[in-house]
Amino acid sequence: MSNKTFHTHTCTLFSQDPAGRALSSDGFKDEYFYLDVPADTADSGDYCCQLDCRAPDFCCLDDQSPLRSCATVHVQTNKKVEVVTKESVSLEAFSQLQQQVLDLARSQQESHDGGCRQSAVTAIAHLAELQAKSDAYLNTVKSFEKELERSLENVKNISAEDRVKLQIETNQMLQNVQLQLDYNISKAMETCNDFQQQLRVEDMKLELNQTTLSTSVEALEQRLDKDFLEMSKSSAKMQNNLETNMKSMQSLEAQMNNFSKVADKRFVQLEAERTNRTANLQQAITKDVSKLEETLSALERKLSAMEETFEKKMVQQISDMKISFTQYQQTTAQELTDVRGRTDTRLSQLERRLSTSENTINSHVTSSSQSHTSLVSELAAFVRKTNAVTESLKNQLTTMNNQLTAKRCESGVKHFSPHDQPSDGSLWRTKTDHVDFTRPFTTKPTVAIGITSLDVSNWSNLRIQVRVGTISTSGFDVHASEWSDTYTYSVAAVWMACNV
């Protein structure tokens, strides 16, 4: 880049390598800036170069000048990149680590560039402000010079003393302007020096970070080698454990198959025994019921015969009482007729015999009352005897019912619906339901239970068990347990409760 039209002490070359890192200028010679890039270590690619002014107020480089834009220069170097592959380090892991290192370096560089650019922008803004003030002072001086020239023309005829005084004032004013300009320039140079010092400090920090990062990468490589070795040992150990576990699982599966066969045979035997016991119990109950029905029929026939005999006796006794009373009425009427016939002639005799007749009548009435009382007593005794027989039959019937109740059996089916996983993370999931008897037993019965209509998400029913919990005279609890990876869609538990 030619620098014929710019002051070399105010323009600076900014360069960047293909990775975006800033490069410092190596000097200006023969109207060109030179950048010394080692061919064996530098990266190949496009290098970016542009001009900028450290003191914009003293540089005539326009803000819109194309020279302020980055110019791309393609550089081809002889840098060789040697890649060494280590079998102990995973290529994918090392690539990820390398990418992370590059991202970290890029982030640091962007942060560094952003801070430098911000500092540079601040310094340039400050210099621009100082340049504006300096331009204002220069314009003031130029205006003052023009006015001074006009004044000098007008004061040619002024006395020597006035000229000396005016010269002193003019020199003093020029000296003040020069001092102000020197002060502004010194402040601008101090700002530039501070900015350069800050850049050097940031470069040192960046080099230190790169050194630390390289050390970390080496340590990480060593750690990866060590971890890979440990992983290889762990993998071999896990392979041995897996083979041992597979053998144990095969042995356990064989044992479970044998247990399943034995359990199936035992279940068939229990089912046959239960069927036989149920049939025998049903036959015994049928026989007892038949005997009870025959006994009740005999009792009913006996009671009917007793009622017929009682009715016949009552009819006969009532008929006899009617005949006796009729005869008594007839005798009394005849006697009264005879008395009435002899009323006139034998009134006195009738009066004498009246008391005798009354005594006779009273005697007959007393005799009739005693016969009625005796009959009522006999009927009451017969009723009491009949009630005693009926009560005895009722007691016998109650005793038979109690015996049948005490020796009865009841069966049923309990269906289980799906239930959720246990919240405590245990290996078993459980479900508990309660079964109520149709009517309570007199004593606590014995309950037998089995599984039928099983539908689970696994091929075997060896992962579920059903057992009986608390038993009372009114019902019992059923517990269903299964492995946590077994999901039960439906299961029916067949139960029988007997009190023998």
TrEMBL record:
Protein name per the record: H-type lectin domain-containing protein
Coiled-coil blocks: 127-161, 282-316
Tagged with keyword Phosphoprotein: no
A Pfam match: H_lectin
H-type lectin domain sequence ranges: 433-497
Record's keyword terms, sorted: Coiled coil
InterPro entries listed in its UniProt record: H-type_lectin_dom_sf (IPR037221), H-type_lectin_domain (IPR019019)
Database matches in Gene3D superfamilies: 2.60.40.2080
SUPFAM superfamilies xref list: Agglutinin HPA-like
Source organism (scientific name): Pomacea canaliculata (Golden apple snail)
